[in-house]
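Project standup — Tuesday

K.O.: blocked on the structure for the chain from last sprint. Re-posting the sequence here as requested.
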Amino acid sequence: PTSEAFAFHTHLFRVTMLYRERSLEVMKQRLETRDHLWLGGTRIADSFRYFINHYGRQFLRPHTIVLVLSDGFDTNDPEQLGLTMATLRSRVKKIVWLNPMLGRECYTPDEDFMRCVAPAIDHLAPAHSVVALEMTIDYLVRN
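H.V.: unblocked you, prediction finished:
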């Protein structure tokens, strides 16, 4: 009941109540009404900055764990994302970034992304399988 969920693509939107919807059909219909969000490239830095400015007071606490599920492909400048992540990191306990591409053969994260963003991330992990997700759960339980 104390968890919150947000989605982002071209901008951030809160989905907590959508995911608490009992009817999967209603949830799906509500998500599909937001189809205009799925064009234009992912703007992670802009989305995180919006989150900090509009939801930060309400949700960011020293005990908060931020869980990001993203491949990290961003149309914003990597340095902009790094600065935004540093601001976010300064206000929470941990940032855990799950990347569904990390477990794939021949994939390596973008060097600029890693240089700028990695210092703010406490745990970067693959999210390509149930086993990978279980490992992240184990990490969270231990830490």
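K.O.: great, moving the ticket to review. The mean pLDDT is 86. The beta strands are 6-8, 12-14, 65-69, 94-99, 123-126.
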